[in-house]
Specification:
Transmembrane segments: 21-41
CATH topology of the largest domain: TIM Barrel
Signal peptide: 1-21
Strand order of the largest sheet: 17-18-20-21-22-23-24-25
Number of helices: 21
CATH superfamily of the largest domain: EAL domain
Domain CHASE: 118-208
Number of domains: 3
Pfam families: CHASE (PF03924), EAL (PF00563), GGDEF (PF00990)
Subcellular location: Membrane
Length: 753
């Protein structure tokens, strides 16, 4: 009986629970729907509130960054104005500098002082009061300011650094402007002009001191160290801030900002939740839910339409950018390739004309006026080429300072010639950069589609124009050349020669010939010059004129020098073994060989006596361009006991001062100077002057190209030390040299200076 009563109670309780659940099921469903609606609405409100808050912060930050950029650029313009005044009168002195600086310095500028440093040492300051300690500051010796000063000098650009601790006390931003003086031929570095920017005033004038935002400024977009943040703290960049930048030609600052009390502090979300909950309770949950979904669906569809429209415009913009050069606005190489692959002929009988254009003096402008000057040249060139285009013509920039002009004609030859002339004339006109005029000029190569090759491999047409351009540049600047089949044959021949020369190095086909050098007074052998010859398997023995250009273009001239050096030292050892003492062997060394990193290590390991080895440096090597490398390599070579000789002296325009700086043991006068001394007194005086220079510097003079004994007598009377030429001995193989020495009757040659 007791068990039955318990079972009945359990059944009654279960029925009651089921009944309540059924009764409250709609209410429970409505409550769940309402909660979901409130939750979704709250999140949406949070996102909108945060977006609005970020938009407000972004607007205020944009205003501050714009003020910063405007203030900094204004200060830089004032500094550039003062720099221009110094360039006009570089020896003005302190009084003149103070007057000029006082006129330039504006009351509303954040600049508080100037410092002029001729040759990197501060000599003039303005105002003088309070800045006396800065006078005499050598930027090259000051550890804290040297890097920025050298950067401004080496890059030729304005450099902004800071905050910097000043020698006169305090900290400030420092703008450094390199000053150059035009001597009529080139820009000469005068020194640096520095402007001191008052940091508190810059911040105050830019609005940093009157904002309710938490702001930090860094010199890098994503700083990871407190040292990289000079305003505010690093933690600001870690709080998902709004980011802006101050872009200047002399630097870039990154600004990060957020509300001072953080995001979402005043979004009123609590009130919103209350009203949303009341609304959800007052409206039938299913109807609200359906309405919400419908509205959301409509918004989604509209957003998708907007996104689709934006994607179409973005794709069109990207397609345009991919086919055009960003700097000049002209079509680019990809556009030209597409045009060639699918030629849009205006008329079925038209043939394509391609003109390849290369600026002649662009590198000089880019080196002296910086990238801004180079960009001005490219934009001006593009504008002039665009002015020459007709309805169906195309002017394109295909890279660097190279352009292509494409046109169409049923009779391409006269039109191509006229277009080439117009292009050369247009690009020869003066370009003005910063008020100064420059003539850049251009070389052009012309090729057109032939009647027999219509629609066949138009890509070859651009290669033909390139070959013609190469021919124009070889002939000189400001010229036009037309492609011919002879140019193609020459290019093929050069390619075959290069391939054969590569194989010649691998097969050891290069041999060393030797031409003796004689004491001018006794005609004893004083040494030999090792010369490269190519024992070609089909063409026989070839002189250096046949393969030196190929070796240089292949970058194998250094390998050739190494091989001839090894062969010369082997023969020197062989001669010693035969009792035929040759005092010295001279070997040519190229600029590429001098620049090899392992050169000194290889020379240190040479098996032969280095005190009988001499390296001949061609005067055609650019001593001024290679000066830093030569300053290290040449003394190290001489320390190994290897002498230095300057070859072909007088053929180029190398500075005698730069040549003598390396203290060569000998100067070899070129044969073109020696040849006319028999009939020309002026040439004899020239040779005599060179000999006197050598004598004053304790440098021996070698005359090459001694073709007659009369040459030898005149050179001896002039005081020349050594003679070399066909009148005394021709270049010969090692075996021939051994026989020559035996016939001369000197088993042991006498050493000479």
């Amino acid at each position: 009986m007791k068990f039955r009563r318990h079972t009945k109670a359990i059944r009654s309780l279960a029925g009651s629970l089921i009944s309540h659940a059924s009764a409250f099921a709609p209410a429970l469903f409505a409550a769940i729907i309402a909660a979901i609606v409130v939750w979704v609405a709250t999140n949406w409100r949070l996102e909108r509130s945060l977006a609005d808050e970020r938009s407000v912060v972004a607007g205020e930050l944009a205003t501050i960054s714009s003020r910063l950029q405007t203030n900094l650029n204004s200060n830089v313009k004032l500094l550039q104005g003062l720099a221009a005044g110094i360039a006009v009168d570089p020896a003005m002195g302190q009084n003149r500098f103070s007057k000029l600086a006082a006129q330039i310095l504006q009351p509303d500028s954040q600049l508080r002082s100037f410092a002029a440093a001729p040759d990197m040492v501060v000599q003039w300051v303005y105002p003088e009061t309070g800045n006396e300690k800065a006078i005499g500051l050598d930027y090259r010796k000051n550890e804290k300011q040297r890097a920025a000063a050298m950067l401004a000098r080496n890059t030729h650009n304005i450099v902004l650094t800071g905050p910097v601790e000043l020698v006169q006390g305090g900290t400030a931003f420092v703008v450094r402007c390199p000053v150059y003086i035009d001597d009529g031929n080139s820009q000469i570095f005068w020194g640096l002009l520095s402007g001191i920017i008052d940091i508190p005033r810059l911040y105050r004038d830019s609005g940093l001191g009157s904002t309710d935002l938490e702001i930090a400024i860094s010199t890098t977009p994503e700083p990871n160290s407190p040292k990289q943040v000079f305003f505010g703290g690093l933690e600001t960049f870690e709080k998902k801030p709004v980011v802006a930048s101050v872009d200047m030609t002399y630097g870039r600052w990154s600004l990060a900002a957020l509300p001072r009390h953080g995001w979402g502090q005043n979004n009123g979300i609590g009130t919103f939740e209350l009203y949303a909950s009341l609304l959800a309770l007052c409206v039938v949950a299913p109807i609200v839910w359906v309405g919400f979904l419908t509205k959301s669906r409509q918004k989604t569809i509209e957003k998708l339409r907007l996104h689709k429209s934006k994607l179409v415009r973005a794709r069109q913009r990207l397609e345009h950018l991919s086919l055009h050069d960003a700097l000049t606005g002209l079509p680019n190489r990809r556009f030209v390739d597409q045009m060639i692959s699918q030629p849009p002929r205006p008329d079925p009988q038209d043939r394509l004309i391609l003109i390849h254009i290369d600026l002649d003096r662009f590198k000089e402008i880019n080196d002296t006026k910086g990238h801004a000057g180079g960009d001005m040249v490219l934009q001006t060139t593009a504008s002039r080429l665009a002015d020459l285009t007709g309805p169906n013509d195309v002017a394109a920039r295909i890279g660097g300072d190279e352009f292509v002009f494409a046109s169409w004609s049923t009779d391409p030859e006269p039109k191509a010639a006229e277009l080439a002339r117009q292009i050369v004339d247009a690009l020869q006109q003066t370009i003005f950069i910063d008020g100064a005029g420059y003539v850049v000029g251009a070389s052009v190569g012309v090729a057109w589609e032939t009647e027999s090759a219509r629609d066949r491999d138009l890509g070859q047409l651009l290669l033909n124009a390139d070959l013609a351009l190469y021919e124009a540049k070889k002939a000189g600047r400001g010229r036009a050349a037309v492609f011919t089949e002879e140019l193609r044959s020459a290019a093929i021949h050069a390619k075959e020669l290069a391939d054969e020369f590569n194989q010649a190095l691998e097969r050891d086909e290069l041999v060393a010939f030797f031409q003796p050098q004689f004491n001018a007074n006794t005609l004893d052998i004083a040494g030999v010059e090792a010369l490269a010859r190519w024992d070609h398997p089909r063409k026989g023995l070839l002189g250096p004129n046949a393969f030196l250009d190929a070796a240089e273009k292949l970058g194998r001239s250094g390998d050739m020098d190494r091989l001839i050096l090894q062969k010369a030292l082997f023969e020197l050892t062989r001669w010693d073994g035969l009792g035929m003492h040759i005092p010295r062997v001279s070997v040519n060394i190229s600029a590429r060989r001098l620049a090899q990193a392992n050169l000194l290590a290889e020379l240190s390991a040479l098996p032969a006596a280095k005190d009988r080895l001499c390296f001949e440096l061609l005067e055609t090597i650019s001593f001024d361009e290679l000066q830093p490398a030569l300053n290290e390599v040449i003394p190290a070579i001489k320390a190994l006991g290897i002498e230095i000789e300057i070859d072909d002296f007088g053929t180029e325009h190398a500075s005698i001062v730069s040549l003598l700086r390396f203290e060569p043991r000998r100067l070899k006068i070129d044969r073109e100077i020696i040849k006319p001394i028999i009939a020309s007194p002026s040439q004899r005086r020239l040779v005599s002057s060179i000999i006197e220079i050598g004598r004053s510097q304790n440098i021996d003079i070698v005359a090459e190209g001694v073709e007659t004994m009369e040459h030898a007598k005149i050179l001896k009377d002039l005081g020349c030390h050594l003679l070399q030429g066909y009148a005394l001995a021709r270049p010969m193989s090692s075996d021939q040299l051994i026989e020559f020495c035996r016939m001369k009757g000197t088993g042991t040659a006498k050493a000479s200076r």
